[in-house]
Design goal:
Blueprint: H1 2-15, E1 19-22, E2 30-31, E3 49-50, E4 82-85, H2 92-108, H3 117-125, H4 130-149, H5 157-169, H6 178-186, H7 190-203, H8 215-222, H9 227-240, H10 243-256, H11 262-278, H12 283-293, H13 299-315, H14 317-326, H15 328-340, E5 348-349, E6 352-353, H16 355-369, H17 373-389, H18 395-410, H19 415-429, H20 434-447, H21 452-456, H22 459-466, H23 471-484, H24 490-501, H25 506-523, H26 527-541, H27 547-559, H28 564-577, H29 582-601, H30 616-629, H31 634-650, H32 655-663, H33 671-686, H34 688-694, H35 703-716, E7 761-762, H36 772-776, E8 782-783, E9 850-851, E10 876-877, E11 886-890, E12 894-903, E13 906-918, E14 925-932, E15 937-941, E16 956-965, E17 975-983, E18 986-994
Parallel strand pairs: 9-10
Antiparallel strand pairs: 1-4, 2-3, 5-6, 7-8, 11-12, 12-13, 13-16, 14-17, 15-16, 17-18
């Protein structure tokens, strides 16, 4: 089409009488000279020239002779070398317009299969809108489709594929050109194959079925005599190789690994990496070849061979052992040669010889030396040499040192070598480059578990990183400091962090305060030091402290009777200077309300404590200040109202003023504050006789119970796959000399929420046949209710209704005025309350033996023992191998029959079909059946056939479930069941235990 357009312009000029002739020297212009036989345009003897636009300077394409074209112009003559003689009536403006129109058409409409790639790119870039770009691409794709369907334009096929790849990179569909790739690959010439393989890698991937058609062409090209064509095939195979292609072409790649050409070897090794990744079973075919490539001298081959060895180690344990035996010596030699080599311009990077090979070898050495003492010992000398001789003033050197440190920390290195590695990291921390310091902190966090003392030597430098301007470095350094803290350095490290807290960025204060509070709680041995540090944190960053932190502080103050006066005075003093800190205000208000008389009378003064003068009015002023300042904070204002109420009892002279302050909220829009204001005002005004006893100090809060609850709540928020960091219920580091409670693990049955109640344990002996450990998961200990506030906190009171409010458990929740008990969710439903307290470890007698037809006793609300009947002497008789039906439960109102079936070939699995029959004359509605089993048994309940049990046995409800006894043959089946239903809208609940399962289940 371009050829036709050129012919068209020549025909246009020819029809106008313009004659063309060829010039010997290209002038880059279109000429209309003056002739002696024609009228002159100008009187000048030099012919005037009309300059051609740059866009129209296109070479003449080869073409067949055409009568319409000037015969004097060769097919390769540039348009810029054409002169024209015009008749006298042809105006110059007409010539210019024709030329400009032609140039514009050629520049803005390059939609032909013969358009060059650069012209298409110019047209796409010239598009001002996305719609224009889509139009350009759409027209060009149409031209390419036409060229593909037409025969006879073989010379343009590679150009079309190049344009198609550019269109593909823009995100437009190009699937119609995939077969063109295969045709170009099958061509004989190198240029066509190059474009074909490039298109194959861009337009196709390993999931395309059409890729299988190219396997034969790849095999032929891998065996081609031209090394460049072999290289093209290896590159394509290394990028899009599928598992099937890897199995078919692996022998050819193995042959090329023995080639004499270094470029072919290098590409074959990289292609082998892809093959091993796709088919790990082929790893054994490349082990020997990979080891032999390590003897090469060419660095490109060495890097490829090291990469292949690394992939073999990941793919196969056999390959790992083989390379440990055969490659360690070669790797040490390579590393020594490249470290001691003289200057080589082709490998030099910033004065260091081939850092890329350094790093690849070090990574492979780390994989080979991990967990192998012999290999690690063989590497120690060369690693020490690299660590000491490599310069650290260039980025390439730092990269090698970083990888060397990683290798030393990853293998079984000597202690001296590890100290050397950590010292290198210490130098990294002093580097001005933020990236180098960050990676050093990352490695030190892993190294601290290996050699804590060596990391401790760089404590000062790490502390300086906490004050860095870069936020990521600050955060990582803070995490490292937290890991460095121990009982000996806790005080100086905490002091440094608290001092920095005053000048830290607001965005960083939240993380910093959290770490300081964690350190203080975890390592404090003296309550006074703990109080001082927490007061500093609350004063400097009280708005960034989480609620559980100041809750814990209140609990500690409540338990430290000898420090209560000191605490309230310190808090009052701090409140005068830092009243804008919310958490400080809450703790201070609480303490003033509880210990206001200590503040006024200077009770419990310490030796070094300076006396302060505080009047009753001053104490009330402090609370009123907080009440007015935090008008939008309901929690703070509620605490202030409680504190004012208590001060009315402690300071009778201030009762009238306090009454006026409290009365200000009688019409508050917040219901909580309005109710408190009205009730507190009534107490102050009308109930003066009982006010003193009503407003006594709170009893000492149970510190151990609070910490258990807090740790349980923290652990519950951590995903199951992530280990809890910090305090856990089984490993409590209680501050201030509080003894650790021997807390039992929490119950987990039927996926119910566990009870937060702290359960104390006494010494007990367990036997192998004691199923209490398996059924309740409490470690086989005898549970005692000693120290528990009420019977409702006993986790054994209701096996299937586990969970009680924190107030029932004796735990403190300072963030809300009242606690709400929420029912525990279960499948399909769990009733959260039991009509009468009972001990569900019951209904089996230790001396009773069961038979197939024995009915279980009716459940009564007396204490019994669920597990007495499960002793080793329990006998079950009268059952044959057919596992007949058993009566699992029967009372005066309900009968349950279990139909047992065994799975063939699975003796540990039992399928149970339960039938529920109503023995009364009243229909049961909302019927729900639930079961609990020990931990060694897995239970899966199927949906019930209905939830209405007809009266008088006229119908029944059925439900199936499967049980799997993981200790089949060692422990018998045990099950506790519960049925809930409604009779005339009234809730009923029955419970029992199935004790007559046949043996062998």
């Amino acid at each position: 089409m371009a050829d036709l357009s050129i012919r068209h312009i020549f025909s246009t000029f020819d029809s106008l009488g313009v004659k063309f002739e060829n010039t010997e020297q290209p002038r880059g212009l279109f000429a209309v000279p003056t002739g002696h036989r024609h009228h002159h345009f100008h009187s000048s003897p030099d012919p005037p020239f009309v300059l051609l636009p740059a866009a129209s300077r296109l070479n003449y394409l080869p073409r067949e002779p055409d009568p319409a074209s000037p015969p004097s112009l060769p097919s390769s003559t540039p348009l810029a070398c054409v002169r024209a003689r015009a008749p006298r009536d042809l105006k110059l403006d007409t010539v210019e317009k024709i030329v400009e129109d032609f140039a514009s058409d050629m520049a803005l409409n390059p939609f032909s299969s013969g358009t060059r790639l650069r012209d298409m790119i110019r047209a796409i870039r010239a598009s001002k809108t996305a719609a224009e770009e889509r139009a350009v691409v759409r027209r060009e794709c149409a031209a390419i489709r036409t060229a593909i369907s037409e025969r006879g334009q073989e010379e343009l096929r590679h150009r079309n594929m190049a344009k198609l790849m550019f269109i593909h990179m823009l995100g437009y569909p190009t699937h119609f050109g995939q077969m063109e790739c295969l045709k170009l690959i099958a061509a004989a010439g190198y240029p066509e194959k190059r474009i074909g393989y490039l298109g194959l890698m861009l337009l196709l991937d390993e999931r395309q079925e059409v890729l299988m058609l190219v396997t034969n062409s790849l095999k032929q090209d891998l065996n081609h005599s031209n090394p460049f064509i072999v290289g093209l095939a290896l590159c394509a195979l290394g990028n899009i190789c599928s598992a099937e292609m890897a199995q078919d072409l692996a022998p050819e790649v193995e042959k090329l690994l023995r080639s004499r050409d270094v470029n072919t070897k290098k590409k074959a090794a990289l292609c082998s990496v892809r093959i091993v990744r796709k088919v790990p079973d082929l790893a054994e075919n490349f082990m020997g070849l990979a080891a032999s490539l390590l003897k090469e001298k060419h660095h490109g081959v060495l890097i490829s061979a090291v990469q292949l060895c690394t992939e073999l180690c990941k793919a196969s344990k056999d390959a790992l052992e083989y390379l440990r035996k055969n490659c360690i010596e070669g790797l040490v030699r390579i590393l020594r040669d490249v470290s001691n080599s003289s200057y080589a311009p082709e490998y030099d990077v910033a004065g260091i010889s081939d850092p890329f090979l350094h790093i690849r070898v070090l990574k492979l050495m780390r994989m080979l030396g991990q967990g192998d003492a012999d290999c690690s010992e063989y590497m120690n000398d060369i690693l020490a040499q690299v660590a000491t001789k490599t310069e650290s003033n260039k980025n390439a050197g730092n990269a090698i040192l970083y990888e060397c440190v990683e290798t030393i920390m990853g293998i079984e290195a000597t202690s001296g070598l590890r100290v050397l590695a950590i010292n290198i990291l210490g130098r990294f921390l002093s580097n001005r480059d933020n990236n180098i310091r960050y990676v050093a902190l990352n490695i030190l966090m892993r190294a601290i578990t290996v050699d804590t003392q060596a990391v401790q030597r760089h404590r000062v430098t790490i502390l300086e990183c906490v004050k860095d301007a870069d936020a990521s470095i600050r955060k990582r350094a803070l995490e490292l400091v937290f890991l460095l803290v121990n009982d000996t350095n806790v005080k100086p490290l905490t002091k440094e962090l608290v001092d920095y807290l005053d000048v830290a960025d607001p965005d960083f204060k939240e993380d910093l305060t959290a770490k300081i509070c964690s350190i203080t709680e975890k390592f404090s041995q003296e309550k006074l030091w703990y109080l001082d540090q927490m007061l500093k944190v609350l004063s400097l960053a009280g708005n960034h402290v989480k609620d559980d932190v100041w809750h814990a502080l209140i609990v500690v103050i409540s338990n430290a009777s000898e420090l209560q006066g000191y605490a309230v005075r310190s808090l009052y003093t701090a409140l005068q200077a830092y009243s804008e800190q919310g958490s400080l205000l809450r703790v201070a208000v609480w303490c003033i309300g509880e210990y206001g008389e200590m503040l006024v009378n200077n009770v419990g003064m310490l030796e070094a404590e300076p006396p302060i003068t505080v009047t009753e009015s001053d104490a009330v002023d402090a609370v009123e200040l907080g009440f007015n300042r935090y008008s939008a904070d309901v929690t703070t204002r509620s605490m202030c109202l409680v504190a004012l109420l208590k001060l009315s009892s402690r300071f009778p002279s201030m009762s009238e003023r306090i009454k006026q302050i409290v009365a200000q909220n009688k019409e508050n829009m917040v219901l909580e504050l309005q109710q408190r204001s009205i009730e507190f005002g009534s107490i102050i005004q009308r109930h003066q006789s009982i006010r003193s006893s009503l407003l006594e100090r709170m009893p000492v809060l149970d510190e151990a119970a609070y910490l258990v609850k807090r740790a349980s709540a923290t652990q519950a928020t951590i995903p199951a796959y992530k280990p809890a960091s910090g305090v856990t219920p089984g490993d409590l580091k209680l501050p201030n000399g509080v003894a650790k409670p021997a807390a039992a693990p929490l119950v987990d049955l039927l996926d119910l929420s566990s009870d937060d109640a702290p359960v104390t344990s006494t010494s007990a002996t367990t036997t192998p046949n004691d199923f209490l450990q398996d059924l309740l998961g409490i470690g086989g200990t005898n549970l005692s209710t000693a120290g528990v506030p009420s019977a409702s906190t006993d986790i054994l009171m209701d096996l299937l209704s586990i969970g009680s409010s924190p107030s029932q458990n004796g735990l403190l929740d300072l963030s809300s005025p009242a606690q709400e008990q929420k029912p525990v969710s279960a499948i399909p439903q769990v009733v959260s309350l039991v009509p009468e307290p009972m001990d569900l470890l019951g209904s089996l007698s230790s001396s009773a033996s069961s038979s197939a037809g024995t009915k279980s006793s009716t459940v009564v609300p007396q204490a019994a023992d669920l597990l007495d009947g499960l002793s080793a002497s329990t006998s079950v008789s009268g059952l044959d191998d057919a596992c007949p039906s058993i009566t699992a439960f029967q009372s005066a109102t309900l009968k349950i029959v279990f139909d047992l079936r065994k799975q063939l070939g699975k003796p540990q699995e039992t399928t149970i079909h339960a039938t529920f029959t109503n023995l009364t004359s009243t229909t049961y509605t909302d019927f729900i059946f639930q079961a609990a089993v020990p931990k060694f048994i897995q239970l899966r309940l199927d949906p019930a056939s209905g939830n209405v049990v007809p009266a008088s046995g006229k119908g029944s409800v059925t439900q199936g479930f499967n049980v799997t006894n993981s200790q089949h043959g060692q422990k018998p089946l045990a099950m506790r069941i519960r049925m809930s239903y409604k009779v005339n809208g009234e809730d009923r609940l029955e419970q029992g235990q199935v004790s007559n399962f046949p043996p062998g289940l």
